[in-house]
Amino acid sequence: MPLLPDLRPDFPLLARTVRNGKPLVYLDSAATAQKPHSVLNAEADLYQFHNGAVQRGAHLLAEEATDLYESARASVAEFVGALPDEIVWTENATHAINLVANGMANASVGIGGTDSARFRVGPGDEIVVTQTEHHANLIPWQMLAAKTGATLKWIAVDDEGRMILDDLESVVTERCKVLAFTHASNVTGIISRVDVLVARAKQVGALTVLDACQSVPHLPVNVKALDVDFLVMSAHKMLGPTGIGALYGRKELLDALPPSQFGGSTVKVVTMETTTWLDSPLRFEAGSQPVAQAIGMGAAVRYLSELGMDAVAAHDRELAAMLRQGVADVPGVRLLGPVDDGAASDMLAIAAVVVDGVHTHDVGQVLDDSGIAVRVGHHCNQPLHRHFGIAGSTRASSHVYTRPEDIDAFLAALQDVRAFFGVAA
Amino acid sequence: MSAIEQMYQQVIMDHAREAHGRGLVDLGLSAVGESHQVNTTCGDEVRLRVALDGDTVKSISWEGQGCSISQASISMLTELVEGEDLEMAGETIEAFKALMQAKGAGIDEQREDMLGDATAFVGVGKYPARIKCALLGWMALKDAIIQAQKGAPA
Questions:
Q1: Per-residue model confidence (pLDDT) at position A1
Q2: ipTM exceeding 0.90?
Q3: With an 8 Å Cβ cutoff, are A392 and B65 in contact?
Q4: What gap in Å lies between CA B140 and CA A147, rounded to an integer?
Q5: Which of A62, A267, A380, A390 is catalytic?
């Protein structure tokens, strides 16, 4: 499969040097991605030429800023196959998941009246997650269960980290009200069987919430094709700014879900006793919004769209095979999850490894000394690491600007780690 | 010596490989304190127990797991502080904290003497992300001493 052309000139940061004047080998994109000129310029352009209060002013600048802001929403919507009104700006993906879980908690105490009754959960109901979730897609559901008396259940994973779907019918039952799961693991890179999980959720009438933080930057994602009810994404992993994410929700669901953050610009009618909400997305966007960041996110998805997500996915596949096979060949190094044989198409270019006898922080330090940036620790996923019998791992991950020589540099440095710490080769 | 060699000095590597004080012990003393500390970025943890005999830190023992910096640091503090009186223990803890905040530049000679081999951690101060690793056991020690004093006979 073909790689993308060399995009590094589009990303100014990648030209810098790091420790000891070494060139940067950036393999921490699953934590946060670098930004192309077009994203940086989009934010600067707002502040230099168009800045005004969005959706509030009567002047030209306010109109221009509002237009840029809403165009960005339309770009993000188009990027995932949604309507603009189905995209809610959030601070990040974590906020987006909390928005759904807290909205359900509010519905459960009667906020939103009969319109929100479909979101109510209580004793006897079940909330289902999986054992491979990022903490952000686990804790909000633990808290929803704690607040409402519902039961939290989860789909377990096997020794390789794949979700065990054989007994899905016994885990996701008629009592399940919401099924929240990741599209792709931030540790193993395994892409989930969304079709199987959504089909089961529909059978039992459960809502689906898809954490697409790792998938949306690398794969074509269409919310209608996936047929999920909610989907969350994080701009800073998809070449966009920090401080902005988005929630997709089916329009009729977003218009019925009670907000959980309250303030200006979200309301229809306010009396001293009661409040009625605007339709989505505005009912969820209380207070002043991260306008420049939203515009930056719009520029990021336009950049990805111009590359073409099929081409981006092919690039990722190629690097995934190179990375995982390469790691599997390094002596004394354990790869979490299945080895990619080059034929499987359900893995992202993420490789979390454990070096025998060397702690992940120490591994990361030695790689850093060679100019190689990776993630160390549990990657906000303690339960999966515990399942693998370890506290943490060292994770390399790619993006559109990653080149085969980056992977080679990582593999070469990984070879040397054990020698540095005097662990027998 | 490169920065990374300065961080991973031989004495640190030796302590990481053969750590002192590992394995909780019970001496049957009444003034015993325990502290559990976690490094939230990596999940490393230590449970450290201190037993006091009057004003003396009679015993330090611990269990836990972590990187070579954290393990070596706990090992060295065990060697340094065990058998010292509480005043000296407190001064040693403060000296080590000062060393970590020195950004790799070192501290005054008097306090370096107090730290002995533990001055080898000076290189860690150049790597802000790793200072927490080196301090993990020292935070546990400080807390465990406070807990032990609460249990001490008046």
A1: 64
A2: no
A3: no
A4: 34
A5: A380
